[in-house]
Design brief:
single chain; alpha+beta; 4-stranded antiparallel β-sheet; 3-stranded antiparallel β-sheet; 15 helices; 55% helix; globular
Length: 372
Amino acid sequence: MNVFYDANAIYEAGKKAIKGAPFKYQSHLFEMNQLLETAELQKKLIEGKYRPSKGRKFIIKERGKIRHITTDNMVDKTINHLLCDNVLSKAISPYLIYDNGASQKGKGVSFHRKRLETHLHRYYRKHKNNEGYILLIDFSSYYASIPHKLCLQNTYNLLKKADKDEAKITLWILSNLFEIFNIDNKNNRGVDIGSQPSQNIGISYPVKIDNYIKIVKGVKHYGRYTDDLYIIHEDKDFLKKLLREIKEIADKLGLIINPKKTHLCKLSQPFRILQIQYQLTETGRLIKKIHPKAITRERRKLKAYKRLLEKKRLTYDEIENTFKSWMAGNYKNMSRLQISNMSQLYYDLFKRRVTWKNHGKLHWLMEQNLKT
């Protein structure tokens, strides 16, 4: 049965939408009326009357860069889960390379970093030295620059093995989404950050670049995290030529390579990927360090949290959980002095120790030189 007409599938997609934010009022309201909402959605899909809403938009400023984020209502989130989990994700999965590390089950930032480390170690074992290069490529305004027409054509090609009716409805829903995106942009480009279909589009749209590098050029030490690419090779001229060829493919896709963030670096010199600084030594040791600016940002955030706590706009539990999450994700790439200094700043601001149920090693590191 066509998954878009299956009430059980729609209901399950609604449960996933609720699970994403069970504490919100709109989730509670949707859950109370989920059977009615499911029947209404099924009717709209069968009659071809479903239209996505514009959603709520807000702006965040991250590392000096302004990002426009969209959050959908519960009905649209249900459709997004129905679309992506049952059709789109399954259709694009066979075409994605293993080293495409973003927005997939079992993958993420940690996976991408581990693959980079694996590629660096393999390179050293093969060449017995660190005399090689890494090409770092970044696209300018990646999500905002994806052309709708080319994106639909690319998605159509990826859906060839899917059920014909489901593929047709998938393209119809995406076309409606692009019309909503185009209300603000009016240039037939761009997808919203924060939307589940946008994540699927983001990982699958440059698949031609992935295949060209991996299959046509035979580069084994290559990985991509959405719009961040790295290519490791022993020949500098090869990488320069490859960059020109990638630019040609990107031009056909309507993507722009950012010249300020695209670098050719020596493996023996420090280079930065996803906020971690790496360096391959002569002995094959891989040195990893957190970027100093990340420490500075977190220290500023803690001081801002203190001000918000005094104004009663944040609770202490929210602040502690946020800080614990940041520390747990970054402490392996921090020195003992950095861990100690962050722990001391936290205590000086809030006059409390961080409480841990697990993470004995991190707890011990944070308590080592704490002055109370």
